């Protein structure tokens, strides 16, 4: 209504208006015409309203006709307002669908304002494409398993040298994508980031012969998880994308129905062990920080795609908790006691366990942990609290926080409510540190925390000796007939052990090669760049004997271009070449402040 939208002025403004109208100035003709027109319109409305009432009384009709007319007019106005609201809601839904749906759901379900619904879309058309292409995917996997995987399995152990796939069928149930989220903010403009929630409950049928008459097989497999797909870099020429990278942000869940001799693995004693072993293999290939990469142009470096520098470092201060659930009871549960709480904290494949606070529902830990973050948003800080017992520890709450929030806020100091229990909160202080290659920043921390992060890309080695005996013969200049025959025998199964102080990390095993290729990335926290060094030892898998070694002082990185060494290294006196790429990027703020 036009009149309903008008606002009456307050006291002073009204007085000013009255003073203006009460002046003795002569009104012009246009003002007189306007006032006269407003009077005629007002009079016409009055006649239009009261004339039917007059005619009703003049004709001797009942007063109920007047009431009926009033009801009809009121109904018409209400109906008109309802239509206007519907049209306005529809327009708002078209303009801003996500916010409107979240608001309406929160109102209908009486949820708190901080409850958010994920921005995940259904992609039925992709599932239709997968359904159509699934038989051809099965053909590809059959070739992959027989041509590549079968050979790797045979080389992994002498007892598996006759391992053969006899049947490979991936069934008729395709992989399904239950939801997809596309990131438009907080990502580089030259990349597209997609999160795909996948669900596979397939009727696979795979049989293999390990060694006559031992058979193994899988008949049915269930896999659920979230895969992140990154299209980068975006380029101005065909095919518009330089490469595709995909990986699981977190370990997926896996269930397998075994057949043959491996049917024993379906028993409760072995099922979790077997599935965990397979998950370790999957994690070594495509769970962060490991990635699967498909370059689409020659200019893209595969090592940079497979092991890009992390997004940053998060420092987690586990301070305290309060109002925890009491799990210890006395007198057969009649008397409530307290708990002996401790916390487990995980980011990716790195996890820590806090100290245990005895008999306390309001424990104080005041402990600090540091994690390398490869993807934010995406990776989560996973916290679980347990009550320590002599037999099985009791669960007393958990909380997951997307580290993208910490990256946005730079620093968070607050209480977080525990999930899965009736009560309890945990207090964290979280700090985000970006990475910078600046040698002028401090090279050590007085508080014992890390001042830098070292990234190592282990590429390959060349001309490794077969075993330690060949090394000794080379040292003493011996080239006996036995040594010459040794060189013709099997090549070593080797791996690399990387060490900084007490922290030790191991590479995967490269089988039967004097020129092994690892192509793996590692990260270390550095506390004093000037005194610490990186030690690498190439070892033989079976005997754990050393085939070569390299000691690299981290101080060399301070004078290197962009604090990066990308070259081949001679492995000690043995002169076995051990190349690796070491990149040291110091955290940009040592006083606890984070910058972009």
TrEMBL record:
PROSITE patterns noted in UniProt: C2, SMP
Biased composition (Polar residues): 577-596
Pfam families named in the record: C2 (PF00168), SMP_LBD (PF17047)
A molecular function GO annotation: phosphatidylethanolamine binding
Domain C2: 296-416, 435-574
Gene Ontology annotations of biological process type: endoplasmic reticulum-plasma membrane tethering; lipid transport
One Gene Ontology cellular component annotation held by this UniProt entry: plasma membrane
SMART domains, per database record: C2
Main location: membrane
InterPro entries xrefs: C2_dom, C2_domain_sf, Ext_Synaptotagmin_C2A, Ext_Synaptotagmin_C2B, Extended_Synaptotagmin, SMP_LBD, Synaptotagmin_SMP
Keywords: Calcium, Cell membrane, Endoplasmic reticulum, Lipid transport, Lipid-binding, Membrane, Metal-binding, Repeat, Transmembrane, Transmembrane helix, Transport
Annotated SMP-LTD domain residues: 119-297
Compartment(s) of residence: Cell membrane; Endoplasmic reticulum membrane
Membership in a protein family: Belongs to the extended synaptotagmin family.
Region (Disordered): 576-596
Membrane association type: Peripheral membrane protein; Multi-pass membrane protein
Xref: CDD domains: C2A_C2C_Synaptotagmin_like, C2B_Synaptotagmin-like
The protein's name: Extended synaptotagmin-3
Regions crossing the membrane: 57-76
